[in-house]
UniProtKB/TrEMBL annotation:
This is Phosphoribose diphosphate:decaprenyl-phosphate phosphoribosyltransferase. The keyword Transmembrane helix applies. Coiled coil: none annotated. It holds the Pfam family UbiA. It is a multi-pass membrane protein.
Length: 286
């Protein structure tokens, strides 16, 4: 049962919470021990909050998960973890995350956590059944993760940052839905997929990808001239390659779990590593 509780907390998906480091990293703030500690706190609290919402989500989806070839092995759907235990643990994790943020004198982080939890719970009990609202809600959760880094370290969030993160989140979620639509088992367990077509989700994916790359390109040109600008503009190449790789995987029906792609797909990992290295070098040189 203990192993089942760990599995239902979905530690693999904690990689999403690394988004809390995006804003302070781009501001060069992580060189400060205090900012690094604040970012780590935000990461840990988002892991706790996210795991709490995953528990509630798996309780709500248990019946549907039993009809899915892969999800039927989830601990709650398979009966490994009792529903009452999962409900209590989920409530404890959800309630403790913002309280710990307040205890650590981080009221802005607590506010972002409350927003994230409200959106996640709304998704679990309603928004996931509404076409387009389900995509916007999941993307919104990613954006709130990114905002949390600025909230906890005091780094200002620019319009460029918010636009790129929002469009990138929509791209990933649109790709996720399209990959699910291409998987027969998922079509039977996610009701909103009945309202989508592959063509619509493909157009949505391409439109958001194009807008994100264009916005990123415009931001890169606004960086100070010199080596910093050269490095930042050069980072457009691995960004575009990462987008192309994501398109190729989704077209093959891969991408139902985006975090699995980041953990396992070597070409995507190399593109993201090159992107991160060039951007951070540009930040520190600048």
């Amino acid at each position: 049962m203990a192993w089942g509780v760990l599995l239902v907390a979905r530690p693999r998906q904690w990689i999403k919470n690394l988004l809390v480091a995006a804003a302070p990293a781009l501001a060069g703030a992580l060189d400060s021990a205090a900012a690094a500690a604040d970012t780590l706190l935000a990461f840990l609290l988002f892991c706790a909050a996210a795991s709490g919402t995953y528990l509630l989500n798996d309780i709500a989806d248990a019946e549907a998960d039993r009809a899915h070839a892969r999800k039927r092995h989830r601990p709650i759907a398979s009966g490994l973890v009792p529903v009452p235990l999962a409900a209590v643990l989920g409530a404890l994790l959800i309630g403790s995350a913002p309280l710990v943020a307040l205890a650590a004198a981080k009221p802005r982080l607590a506010l972002v956590l409350v927003g994230y939890l409200a959106l996640s719970v709304s998704y679990t009990y309603g928004l996931k059944h509404l076409p387009l609202c389900d995509i916007a809600a999941v993307a919104g959760c990613h954006v709130l993760r990114a905002l949390a880094g600025g909230a906890t370290t005091g780094v200002p969030i620019t319009g460029w940052f918010l636009a790129v993160v929002s469009l990138g989140a929509l791209l990933v979620v649109a790709g996720k839905r399209e990959a699910e639509l291409r998987t027969p088992a998922s079509r039977r367990t996610r009701a909103t997929l009945a309202y989508y077509t592959t063509g619509f989700l493909t157009r949505l994916r391409i439109a958001t990808a194009s807008a994100m790359v264009a916005t990123y390109f415009l931001w890169a040109w606004t960086t100070p001239t010199g080596l910093a600008q050269v490095l930042t503009v050069a980072s457009i190449v691995p960004l575009v390659m990462a987008v192309f790789r994501l398109h190729a995987l989704v077209d093959r029906g891969i991408g139902e779990e985006p975090e699995e792609l980041v953990l396992r797909d070597r070409p995507l990992q190399l593109c993201l590593a090159a992107l991160g290295a060039l951007v951070l070098l540009g930040v520190h040189v600048g």
